[in-house]
Amino acid sequence: MNLKLLALVALGLPGVAQAQAYQCAIPGNVPTPRADLPSADQPKRVLPIGSYTLAITWAPGYCRAHKDDRSARFQCGGGNRFGFTLHGLWPDGVGKDWPQYCAATPIVPKKVIRDTLCLTPSPQLIQHEWAKHGTCMGTTPAAYFRSSTRLFAGLRYPDMDGLSRGALTVGDFSAAFAKVNPGLPVTSIRVTATKQGWLDEIWLCLDKAYNYERCRPNSGGLPASADLKIWRGRR
Questions:
Q1: pLDDT over 60 at 163, yes or no
Q2: Residues 6 or more apart from 29 whose CB is under 8 A from it?
Q3: How far apart are CA 139 and CA 131, in angstroms?
Q4: What stretch of H or E contains 113?
Q5: More confident residue, 49 or 15
Q6: Which residues contact 182 (CB under 8 A, 6 or more apart)?
Q7: Shortest CA distance to 230 belongs to which of 186, 167, 181, 175?
Q8: Residue 227 bridge partners (DSSP)
Q9: Can you tell me the distance from the alpha carbon of 16 to that of 134, in angstroms, rounded to the nearest whole number?
Q10: Among 6, 90, 94, 129, which one is least packed by beta carbons within 10 Å?
Q11: Contact 101, 43 (CB under 8 A)
Q12: What pLDDT, on a 0 to 100 scale, did the predictor assign at position 21?
């Protein structure tokens, strides 16, 4: 196995160490993902891009819910340990709909998958993000993942262990997240949780130049007053 510690990756991508991937061991033979295609429920939509969303996942919470899923073995099994992971960079539309599955695409190149795997720890999710979102951005897989990785690498994180041990609301968490990320206003942060109230994802609202902007009304996420719990996992 090729052991890749994010502290080493951070030499080339400042901030990745703060993304809390504590240890990531890439296997010598990374599974090849399946093609990801539009469907009746998820149709092709070629629409203008009005803004972007950067989605990041709280991995301990994800693994709590998916620890027995075969597709989650790399992220949740073995010696790999993650904090926040990169879900993806999503183009949003101008109106209520967003572009998706804009062009037929082959499997993401193996090198791109390996380069991205310690940030987005699922070859199938990497394929999905490129097929559904990246193909609408007029770029290549390598350039698309460089853009999302650069944005992800610039983030810092509050004391998740400390926040998990007391009463917490979505507003409290958003304020703590904004505090450690100068230039990121609370109004650019949306937080999602499971039905049981456990932290699931953070969605950051970006304009077309990838600057933070106020999230649009009714664009998802919980109200600031909602209670929030943080699952610590093996920490």
A1: yes
A2: none
A3: 12
A4: helix 110-116
A5: 49
A6: none
A7: 167
A8: 169
A9: 21
A10: 94
A11: yes
A12: 60
